[in-house]
Sequence to fold (113 residues):
Amino acid sequence: MHEVSLCEGVIGIVRDAQVRYGFDRLARIRLEIGALSHVEPQALRNAFPSVALGTAAEGAELIIDEPAGQAWCADCNASVAIDRRGEPCPQCRGFRLLVQAGDEMRVKDMEIG
Ligand SMILES: [Zn+2]
Fold:
């Protein structure tokens, strides 16, 4: 469900770009979905084709980059890698973490075709 509305958001961005640049077809669209973003990339891939039907993105190749999560641990005073939100620090098992990267959800680039 969440993924469908996210796809609709992506299509909205495609439409805006279409108005701005005046293209008919999109060949490829690349999204960045961080490991901590609560989005299931596979669900997004499944939802995309039907949401894209009848739009410039119909039949476009969907590429999803999944940057890893990174957080600052206030106890270790260091940047650590985390796989999901709510996970403790892998070094000290503490929870004083501030997410630095990996929660991004954005359209990285598009290729007109
Ligand atoms: Zn730590």
Remarks:
- The pocket of zinc ion is lined by residues 73, 75-76, 89, 91-92, 94 (CB under 6 Å).
- The chain has one domain: 2-112.
